Amino acid sequence: MTEFSLDALVLDLEAVAERLSLETFALLATINLGPVAVAYAARHPERVSHLILWCSWARGGDVWRSPQLQGIRALRDKDWELYTETVAHAYLGWSEAEAARGMAAFLRECTTWQTAQAAQGAVEEFDATALLPQVKAPTLVLHRRQFPVFDVAVARGLASRIPDARLALLEGASAAPWVGDVEAVLSAIDEFLGEGEEAGAAAEALGPGAFRTILFTDVEGSTALTQRLGDAKARDILRAHERMVREALKAHGGSEVKTMGDGFMASFSSATRALECAIAMQRAFAAHNEAAAARPSTGSGRAEVIRVRIGLNAGEPIAEEEDLFGTAVQLAARICAQAEPGEILAPIVVRELAAGKGFLLADRGDVALRGFEDPVRLYEVRWGEG
Description:
Elements: H1 6-19, E1 25-30, H2 34-43, E2 48-54, H3 60-63, H4 67-76, H5 80-92, H6 97-110, H7 113-123, E3 139-144, H8 152-161, E4 166-170, H9 182-204, E5 212-219, H10 222-229, H11 231-251, E6 255-259, E7 264-268, H12 271-294, E8 308-315, E9 318-320, E10 323-325, H13 327-338, E11 344-347, H14 348-353, E12 361-367, E13 376-381
Parallel strand pairs: 1-2, 2-3, 3-4, 8-11
Antiparallel strand pairs: 5-7, 5-8, 6-7, 9-10, 11-13, 12-13
Helix pairs in contact: 1-2, 4-5, 5-6, 10-11, 11-12
């Protein structure tokens, strides 16, 4: 192989997927192959069910300016054997002497100095940053905190640019997932890949005392929408709401409890995931509305947008016949009704459960809610990209 450009490697990946007749699949990319996986996922959103990026990056300039990699690159041009030994030790970990020697020998056997130089030169020019916002697949960015070759900040920057990506920082200094705390790596990946099924099973098996976070959505003015547009066109608008809600629930491990035509009730085992899901929903609705506003006006004289209220609460609901009942559910519904279109509201219990997780919540003060004797302290969850 003599062509190592980003586009060439994406074509290779496309060829493999076609040859194996893969309709949808989870894609894992390690270290230098992150930009290739990002480009493929952006170009083929219908095929990538999950994207996992391990100790990776999106732009060569983000990592290849580090002193460590500058030093390693200088060795590549002067001493091929010392270069392979250094690369192997740097990536596997300096404590993995025997494994590193084996990897170095493997590198020298499977390629030549000239090929390695050409490949590495191409890798340094990779830049998939413009494609990061286009990734639609649920994404997990994994990184080891003590990895010396490039800083955790690179992983944080990568995760922050992919919509609703999750960042998991693990302990260890090796870029090899099979070295060190392998169990933590496998657990993080298994949880990420299986969270949708686990959440659904958890809701079905919910018993007395199970703690859940409840989420409600409500489309503003659905009755007026039907009167104005007619049943068929209004149903198209509500169907778009349903699609975006279900996509967000699937991506964040939420379980759909029921739909009420113009709203959803869902539950989560984690308040953090519930908040992440609510934010993803509002961002999806905002993107839909922006696209609708850019289209020509409808027969009613304006583009149709979807404005949705979201309310959350956490507690111990009662599970019965695949539904949830009780005070925790009732309060979540009342909080949703209190929200303005485009808002996410949550009580103090959700705020405390998600403390330290990076959410921005604005205190709305004590609010009297119908059916509840005492006022409830509410917080608005800020979800704008800024």
